[in-house]
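Treating backbone geometry as a discrete language has practical consequences that deserve illustration. Part of our work consisted of pairing the sequence of a single chain with a tokenised description of its backbone. We regard such an encoding as a compact summary of how the chain folds. The amino acid sequence and the backbone structure tokens for this protein are reproduced below.
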Amino acid sequence: MSGVPFAYPPEGAVMVSAEGAVVLAHDGFDGRPLWQRTLDATVVGLAASPSGVAALDESGLLSRLALSDGAPLAAKAVASSVRAFAHAARAEVAAILTEGSLLLVPGDELPRTVAQVSAFAVAVRADGSAIAVGQPDGRVQVFDAASRTLLGGCQVQAAVQSVTWSPLGHWVVAAGQQIVAVAPDGSHGELRYTARGNVVPECLAPSVDGKLLGFRAGPHLVQVLEWGRSRLVGSAVYEREVGAVAFGAGRSLGVGLDGGDADRLDLVTEEVFSTTGHPGRPTRSWTVALRVERGLLADVLPQVAPPTERVPPLASREKRGVPPTRRVLPWVLGLLVAALVGAAGLWLGILRR
């Protein structure tokens, strides 16, 4: 689990970060501040979906907040000594690793013990039906969420530091310098990529369609892998500490930073959109060097429209400096021209008589 909590839901509407006990939400497009909410203890895990934000603090309290304004929806004590936290993308199901147990937290129900394990990496399938755990000895185990029974497991060649579920229908595991695709039931794995130099991939983040995989490659480095051909196609070098990463809509990669800040990296335009400070909080500046191998990305960039192509609602267009009449004016001019042409034709017809 990254020391810098961060969440960016697949639809890309909001980027959620944290500093200490404060949860900070920013617009997922331009980074402007939306809301902030102070919890009782330091936030150690974050997840976000259209249904809301899940925030786990170091005391073991799991809070659910409204995505629109951060209003508290529910809170319950779930665990202590948290090692890792994961949440399903499309279901109210969370998984928590403590010092010796794997806990399942379905919706508003009480936590249930799934297994006695000593691990630091956990992930939940998008629909909440299964949980994958990666252990320091290289074992990967997959459990059924409903029955809490072991579905299967396999062995990778190094300690597992990160696990995630891919939209392509399998688990993705980072073990040492290797990235491995693991079957849905955990029965076997396939090596897909080996990092070079001192890079140790962690905080794995597949794109919405699974064709790209972003990951934290070091304290100040983020890399992007094209999954189909297992090759690097992008990187971002930071002067600040990088936390968790997550893909939003299209080809937008969100990067959490220390201090509760975040960036949206647009892999289509190679632009960087940084968050701005909330009222009463400083607005920081930092440098990032983003490089995208557009030639290598030609096959995957056009597949999903970037969020910049979405037309925001009328109210938000006004806030972002886009005149709401811009799309109406051409139609008005067209109608006026048509009326003038019709009048001219009628006048000429009268003269001919």
Remarks:
- The radius of gyration is 24 Å.
- The mean pLDDT is 86.
- Helices lie at 314-319, 329-352.
- The longest helix spans residues 329-352.
